[in-house]
C-alpha cells in the first residue's frame, strides 16, 4: 500500500503539471486522461506487478523529458516528421498497464472499447493529436520547453522525495517563505521545494556549537527514517543548514499540512459531523499502526493531538518522532509529555517503564479529543489531573452521540488497568491492529449510512 501511495502522489503531480501546459495541449490532455483513468481505478493490493509497471511508466516520462531538456533537442523533435508523438513510449507503457488492470479488475464491462482495441485506439488518437499540435506556429517552441521543464522539475522533486537529504538553501528559494506559526523555540514557514509546498521549521534558540555534530546525527538517523515511509506518516525531505553570518541557521523541511495539527482542526471546526470525526480517528490510528509496524516495533513516546497533522483533504499524518536526535542536537527545547496524556501508572511514577500499554492510553485520550472536540482536563493543573486519574480513577465522559463501537475503543484504550487495554500478550503489533480493525468497522458503517 505504500507503493500505491507513491504512485498516487506521482500521478497527481503529473496531472497538475500537464494541466498547466499551454502548448501541445491535445497530447498533454490525452496523457492526463489516461493517467487519471488509471488512478481512479480501485486497485487491489495483490496486483503488485501492475503497480510496478504503472510506477515504471510514470518514471519513464522522466527519462523522456530529460532527453529533450535542451533547446536544440526539442526543436529538432518538433521539426521531425508528422508521425512523431511527444509521449509515444510513455503511452505504450500506460497501454500495457491498462490491459493488466482490465484483466485483473474486470473494468472492461464498464467500457465501450474492448481491451484488445485499446492500444490501437490510443495510437489513432495520438496521431491526430500530434498532427493538430504540430500546426502551432514555431514561436510556441519556447513555451513548450517551459511546460516540459515544469514537468521535469516536478519529476525531479519526486525523485528527491524518495530520499531524506541535506537540502541547499537555493532549493528552497522558489517563492517567499510565509510565516505560519511561531513559538519560543522555532518558527514555522510555508515554502516551496521543487515547486511542491513544504513546511520549513526554523530553530530559534539553538544549542549546536558545530554543524558537524548535527550532520553526524542526521546521517545516522536518515537511514532509520526510510522504514517509516507511508502516506500516514509526515514525509521528511531533510534539513537545511544556512551557514551565513556569525552562526548557522538550522531548518527542518517536511511535507506541508494546510490545516495544521489535529488539535487546530478540532478547535477551529466545532461542528464537525460525527462521521468526519470517526474518519479522523481512523486516520490517526493508521499513522500509529504504521509506526508500530516498522520492522522493529517503534514507540512514539510523546503522543498527543498535536502529534498529528491534517492536510487540506483531511488526511491525517503522524509526526513528532522523526529525526529526534538531530532536532535535540539543534534545539534547546525539551519535549516533555503532557500530563493529560499520561497513563495512571506514569502519573504515579514518572520512571515507570514506558511501553505499548502507556502509548495506547495516550492514544485513547487523543481518540476522546476527536470524538468530543474538547481539550482533555481543560482548566486542571498537573496535581489535580493526578488526583482525578490516579487517585479517583476518573475518565472524562463521552458525548451521547458517540457510536457504541467507538466508545468501546476509547474506553478500552483509557482503561485504568494496563491489562485491559487492547493487546494480545502485550505485543505492539497486536494492540494497534485490534484498534485499527475496530475503527475501520466504525468508518465502514458511517460510509454505508
From TrEMBL:
Pfam families found in the cross-reference section: MLKL_N, PK_Tyr_Ser-Thr
Membrane-spanning segments: none
CDD domains on file: MLKL_NTD (cd21037)
Domain Protein kinase: 174-436
Stored PROSITE patterns: PROTEIN_KINASE_DOM (PS50011)
Keywords per UniProt: ATP-binding, Nucleotide-binding
GO molecular function: ATP binding; protein kinase activity; protein kinase binding; protein-containing complex binding
Any GO BP: cell surface receptor signaling pathway
GO cellular component: cell junction; cytosol; nucleus; plasma membrane
UniProt superkingdom: Eukaryota
Protein name in UniProt: Mixed lineage kinase domain like pseudokinase
Organism, scientific name: Cavia porcellus (Guinea pig)
Record gene name: MLKL
Amino acid at each position: 500500500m505504500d507503493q500505491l501511495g507513491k504512485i498516487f502522489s506521482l500521478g497527481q503531480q503529473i496531472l497538475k503539471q500537464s494541466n498547466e501546459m499551454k502548448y501541445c495541449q491535445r497530447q498533454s490532455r490525452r496523457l492526463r486522461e489516461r493517467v487519471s483513468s488509471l488512478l481512479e481505478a480501485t486497485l487491489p493490493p495483490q496486483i503488485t506487478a501492475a503497480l510496478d509497471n504503472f510506477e515504471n511508466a510514470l518514471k519513464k516520462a522522466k527519462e523522456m523529458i530529460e532527453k529533450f531538456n535542451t533547446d536544440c533537442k526539442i526543436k529538432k523533435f518538433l521539426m521531425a516528421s508528422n508521425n512523431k508523438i511527444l509521449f509515444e513510449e510513455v503511452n505504450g507503457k500506460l497501454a500495457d498497464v491498462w490491459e493488466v488492470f482490465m484483466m485483473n479488475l474486470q473494468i472492461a464491462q464498464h467500457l465501450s472499447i474492448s481491451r484488445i482495441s485499446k492500444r490501437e485506439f490510443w495510437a489513432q488518437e495520438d496521431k491526430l493529436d500530434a498532427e493538430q499540435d504540430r500546426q502551432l506556429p514555431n514561436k510556441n517552441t519556447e513555451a513548450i520547453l517551459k511546460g516540459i521543464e515544469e514537468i521535469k522539475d516536478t519529476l525531479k522533486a519526486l525523485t528527491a522525495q524518495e530520499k531524506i537529504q541535506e537540502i541547499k538553501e537555493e532549493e528552497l528559494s522558489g517563492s517567499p517563505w510565509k510565516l505560519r506559526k511561531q513559538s519560543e523555540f522555532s518558527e514555522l514557514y510555508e515554502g516551496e521545494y521543487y515547486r511542491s509546498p513544504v513546511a520549513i521549521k526554523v530553530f530559534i534558540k539553538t544549542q549546536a556549537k558545530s554543524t558537524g555534530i548535527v550532520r553526524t546525527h542526521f546521517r545516522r538517523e536518515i537511514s532509520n527514517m526510510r522504514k517509516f515511509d507511508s502516506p500516514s506518516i509526515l514525509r521528511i525531505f531533510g534539513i537545511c543548514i544556512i551557514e551565513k553570518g556569525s552562526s548557522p541557521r538550522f531548518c527542518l523541511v517536511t511535507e506541508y499540512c494546510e490545516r495544521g495539527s489535529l488539535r487546530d482542526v478540532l478547535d477551529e471546526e466545532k461542528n464537525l459531523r460525527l462521521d468526519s470525526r470517526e474518519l479522523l480517528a481512523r486516520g490517526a490510528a493508521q499513522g500509529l499502526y504504521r509506526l508500530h509496524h516498522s520492522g522493529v516495533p517503534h514507540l512514539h513516546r510523546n503522543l498527543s493531538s498535536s502529534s498529528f497533522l491534517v492536510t487540506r483533504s483531511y488526511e491525517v499524518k503522524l509526526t513528532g518522532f522523526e529525526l529526534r536526535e538531530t532536532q535535540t542536537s539543534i534545539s534547546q527545547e525539551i519535549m516533555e509529555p503532557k500530563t493529560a496524556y499520561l497513563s495512571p501508572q506514569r502519573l504515579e511514577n514518572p520512571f515507570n517503564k514506558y511501553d505499548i500499554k502507556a502509548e495506547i492510553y495516550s492514544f485513547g485520550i487523543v481518540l476522546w479529543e476527536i470524538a468530543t472536540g474538547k481539550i482533555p482536563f481543560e482548566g486542571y493543573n498537573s496535581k489535580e489531573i493526578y488526583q482525578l486519574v490516579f487517585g479517583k480513577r476518573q475518565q472524562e465522559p463521552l458525548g451521547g452521540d458517540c457510536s457504541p463501537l467507538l466508545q468501546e475503543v476509547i474506553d478500552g484504550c483509557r482503561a485504568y488497568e494496563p491489562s485491559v487495554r487492547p493487546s494480545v500478550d502485550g505485543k505492539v503489533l497486536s494492540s494497534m491492529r485490534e484498534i485499527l480493525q475496530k475503527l475501520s468497522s466504525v468508518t465502514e458503517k458511517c460510509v454505508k449510512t
